[in-house]
Structures are given as C-alpha cells and as structure tokens.
Amino acid sequence: MSATWRGVFPAATTQFHEDERIDLDATMRHIDVLVDSGIHGLVMLGTVGENGSLSGDEKLAVMRAAVARVGKRVPVLAGVAENTTAAACRFAREARSAGVDGLMVLPAMIYHADTRETIHHMRVICDAAELPVMVYNNPVSYGVDLKPADFESLARDPRIIAIKESSDDPRRIAELRRLYGDRFALFCGVDNLVLESFAVGATGWISGLVNAFPRENAALWRLLERGAFERARELYAWYLPLLRLDTLPKLVQYIKLAMQEVGLGRETCRAPRLRLDGTEREEVVGLIRAAIRTRPDLSAILR
User: Fold this and answer.
1) How far apart are the first and last CA of the chain?
2) Is 136 helix (H, G, I), strand (E, B) or coil?
3) Among 60, 184, 207, 238, which has the highest number of CB atoms less than 10 A from its own CB?
4) 262-280 pLDDT, tens per residue?
5) CA-CA distance, 75 to 41, in Å (whole number)?
6) Strands 7-10 and 204-207
7) Are 101 and 135 within 8 A, CB to CB?
8) What is the rounded distance in angstroms from the CA atom of residue 26 to the CA atom of residue 12?
C-alpha cells in the first residue's frame, strides 16, 4: 500500500468550549495555523486530541471536519485507540468513510495485551480499514511493548507503512533501521528526543508542542534535514524545556495551556483533566512565558 509519510506530524488538539462541548470552529482554525506553518501531516484524535474523552459520534465529526478543512494539503491520519479489537475495526471503517488518508493504531486500551495479541489486533484493524497504517508503540504510557524484532511479521504486511516509536529509547530507532532498512517510515514520538532520533534514522516526528509552536517545530525539522546540526542544536536548546512537557502525565493540559499563552487556542480539557492551578500552574506558565520572551529569530537561524 503506497503512501509517503515523513516530516512533522502534529498530534493535534481537540478544542472545547468552556462547558466542554467540542469547538469544531476553533479546532479547524488551529488546523489551518498548523498547515500554514509548514508541517507535513496531521494526526487527529491521538492522546493529545483527547481520543478517550470523545464519543464515537464526536470522533467522526472531528474527522470529517478535519478532512474537509485540510483538503489534501497534507495527509490526515486518525488515531485508533478503542478498548476492543471489534470497536477499533468499526472506528477504522468509519474513519475510512470520512476520507482519512491513514490510521495511527494504538494497542487496545485497558487490557495489556501480549505481543501475539497486539500483532493480531493490528492486523485485524488493517483488514477492516484497507488504509495505510502507522503502528504506535508506547510502552511507557500504555504498558504494551513491541520490540524491534517483533515487527518482523508486521513487515510482511504492506498496509503497515510506519512506526511511531515512543519507548524513550532512541536506540530502538537505530535497531529498527538496522533490521528493516527503509521498510518503515520511522517517527519519533517523544518531543525531547527528536534530534537524537533523527540522528539514528527517524524520518518523521509526531509532536505535541507543535500545537503551540508550529513554526519552531517546522524550522527545527528543516534544519535537521539540511544537515545544519549546529543551528538545529541551538534551536533545540531553546525548545527543550518546553518539549519536556510532552513527556509528563499532564501533557494534554500543558500543551493546551501553552496554546492559550501564545494565542492559538483554549486550555479547556474534558474532565477528569482539570485546569491547572496553584504552584503547578505557576511553574508551567513561567516556563512557557520565559520561552516566549526568548523566542529565537527563525529567519536568522534558517538563512
């Protein structure tokens, strides 16, 4: 199955009104900002998109609106994070009917499947969707781990074209590249490991902080692809305190708060995620505002 996925793919947020109803207009306006900044694709309804907080009908409404808004400017992927394989297959078929370009498939939530069960889950979803698939491997958050050697059987399935590797270990990227060459597009899924992951073979980056700083994300990736590593390290050093927010349990709240601070969205999440308060809020707001004050001149860095 043919598709070319590489570069920066935001794990886009789903915007809400203050009463927690989905704000489709705000979500679509933000998509325009992301695409216009020079990103290369979009992942809707991932963790940052609060997949688990939306009903099935709401997920489809977001997907249909996103596909229509993007209009083939970049590929649009739908996150698949259902609790059972049957439910994941139903959603995958619905996402295909909504016009998405592919799927980012997570292990089934709640139950920690073993390797055989996880591979079966992925393959059955591929059968149902008939779309290109990115396998999302995140043992840190989801307790299910596909190690590099486990992808041998998945490499024989032409529908599985990419891997989002979020194990917190860039050596996994190197080993996947060693074992499978260019068989998979390899995406870094940990914001503060992107430079390291690129160095050992990543060809893409699924990012969270890009929602608040899309131009900086696109610029960093551009520098890496150019081989301008000194300038990339300079930009990365500024960005690292922010990128660390993507690795913490409250990443969704932190990313949305950063969006609000830069004027690109609203921090509202769906409960049980609540508005940050107290010392925690002060620390995160202080970090974000310090980054805004010291925001680098991208035109100078990129020239």
Assistant:
1) 38
2) strand
3) 207
4) 999 999 999 999 999 999 9
5) 5
6) parallel
7) no
8) 12
Contact yes or no for 268/21 (Cβ under 8 A): no
- The residue type found at 155 is A
Quote the radius of gyration of the chain (alpha carbons, Å). 18
Q: Write down the residue that tokens 């939530």 correspond to.
A: 109
The CA distance from 267 to 18, in Å, is 9
Give pLDDT tens digits for 84-140.
999 999 999 999 999 999 999 999 988 899 999 999 999 999 999 999 999 999 988
Give the other-Cβ count within 10 Å of 222's Cβ: 19
Strands, DSSP E only, in 124-172? Answer: 133-137, 160-165
Buried-state track 149-169, b at ≥16 Cβ within 10 A, e below 16: eebeebeebebbbbbbbbbeb
From 56, 33, 97, select the one nearest 259 (Cα to Cα): 33
Q: Does domain 7-302 have CATH number 1.10.8.1000?
A: no
Is residue 263 helix, strand or coil? coil
The answer to whether the peptide bond before residue 249 is cis (omega within 30 degrees of 0) is no
Beta strands in 40-167 (DSSP E): 42-44, 76-80, 102-105, 133-137, 160-165
Say if CB 107 and CB 113 are below 8 A apart.
yes
Q: What are phi and psi of 43, to 5 degrees?
A: -115, 115
Place 1 in a pLDDT band, splitting at 50, 70 and 90: low
Q: Domain residue spans in the chain? A: 7-302
Question: How far is it, in rounded angstroms, from Cα 256 to Cα 209?
Answer: 9
Cα dist from 76 to 96, 245, 294, whole Å: 11, 24, 32
pTM exceeds 0.90, yes or no: yes
The tokens of 103 are what?
């799927």
